[in-house]
Amino acid sequence: MKKIIALALFIFLSATGISFAQDNTTVKRTPEEEKELFGYCDKPEMIRTLKLSPEQVDKVAEVDLWAKKEQLTIDANTNERFATAGELKQEVLKKYKAFLSADQAKAVLDYKRSASCPITELNVNHAYDTLVPARALQLFKTPWRKLLIEKLGPVGNGRMADMLFEAEVWKQKESLTIDKIPVSDFNRIRKTVALYQERDRRFLATGIGADQLAQMIQFFEEHQLYKK
Q: Which of 4, 17, 47, 127 is the most exposed place for a label (fewest CB within 10 A)?
């Protein structure tokens, strides 16, 4: 029975799990790093799908950080308060119910992180290793400038398209620098998140609408230099 309870809590904690896969490598993260990762990946998703407020999700993150630290001591047989994972789960549920309804608390326990978290996943195109920005821009514009202007719709023009190409080339060159950081170093995730946030800022600075941002990101995912 204890094994079943422990497995249930392991699944529960793994909704924002202590270990996760990135670049096909399983990396062990500290509870503090997992809390930061929660903010990047789970917070927006839980606000959207569970209809929780940002403040409620922040409190969930605090409870989960506490629970993960407690679980580590249970695993090490050094926890003086909880003998089993099942006891810890009951306390977690009690803490959730202090700021969530019973249905909300159950929804949080049932929540599972999506298989991917794009804002933390660095996509590197090594074609840019040997391309200077001016050459990369030229290679972009020749086949796709007209198509990009068309995708922009009535507001689109050549200057806007060129600024988008420049932002994409900047992002690709910056990603090469970030790729030098080991996967085990959490700064790789922090810098990847900052990279995409700056990419979004630069895209929006061209004059596109917020509703066009996802469309432009998809455009460049589908139109990459030397993409196989």
A: 4
Inside any domain, residue 76: yes
Token reading at 38: 């929660």
What do you get for the CA distance between the two ends of the chain, in Å? 51
Measured between alpha carbons, how far is 176 from 125 in angstroms, rounded to an integer?
Answer: 8
Determine the structural domain holding residue 76 and report its residue range. Answer: 2-115
Whole-number percent of the chain with pLDDT over 90: 78
Q: How many distinct structural domains can be found in the chain?
A: 2
What letter represents residue 138's amino acid? Q
8 pLDDT higher than 70: no
- Alpha carbon distances (Å) from 147 to 17, 49, 85, 157: 42, 35, 56, 11
Rounded to the nearest integer, the mean pLDDT of the chain is 88
Is residue 199 included in any domain, yes or no?
Answer: yes
Above 90 in pLDDT, residue 168? yes
